[in-house]
Amino acid sequence: MAPEILIATYSIVACDLHAGQWGVAVQSKFLAVGSVVPWAEPHVGAIATQSWANPRYGPDGLALLREGRSAEETINALTAADDGREHRQVGVVDGEGRAASFTGSECLDWAGGRTGPCYAAQGNILVSEATVDALATTFEGNAGTPLAERLLECLTAAQAAGGDRRGQQSASILLVEKDAGYANLSDTVVDLRVDDHERPITELFRLYRLHDELFGRTPKEKWVTVNETVAAELRKRLAHLGYEGDLAESFAAWAGGANLEERIDGVERVDPVVLEALRKQSG
User: What is the model's pTM?
Assistant: First the structure.
């Protein structure tokens, strides 16, 4: 039976073994691409399923990786069991950073992929192979950059190189790390989607910057010590916004209302991002 979901797109699946992070970034001329393509589980791997996409490749592929299969073995198992394999495209990075990419012979031109240590880049219905080359070279050239930013830069470079020959519509980024998500009770660090937009990658960057402001983590050694001068400023600014009384309580109440509760830890020291947000709100 012919597959039913045509997702003409480009994606990169990657990991940062040192940080313990796995992620997927994708852009497509397809509504809500993030609802189908990206799958990831910390220390297990990450998967992008696209072209005439088989959504079962996501959960089934993660199950195979969880059993200890390599990226290549996982793709081989998925495609061997799928009569529609020649219409499929899939990229996988496993828990050890091994990568593999598969492009079926019936995927629409230009279609193909590239792999390297800790990444698999692939695309179909592209202007040219330059799009996938840009994904790969940008990832390779940005070692040391946080993985989420690295993946977003890859999307930007790929679009500049030509992108999906049908245009743009949606984009997403998924990043996982064990117990590093909200309140340290989730493995999902970043899960942002732009479902329908004229410039989805630009919008995805905007959402990521907002997400990082609210949920990012500044190293504690860069936090500001709350001495008498800083404490006086906090009280004044909080009072201006209607938060008075005990400093710790009023500061926590304001931070909760501003969705910055993940970036505070008492009032002995304060994250500079939080301090700047308070300054902006209080004028």
Answer: 0.91
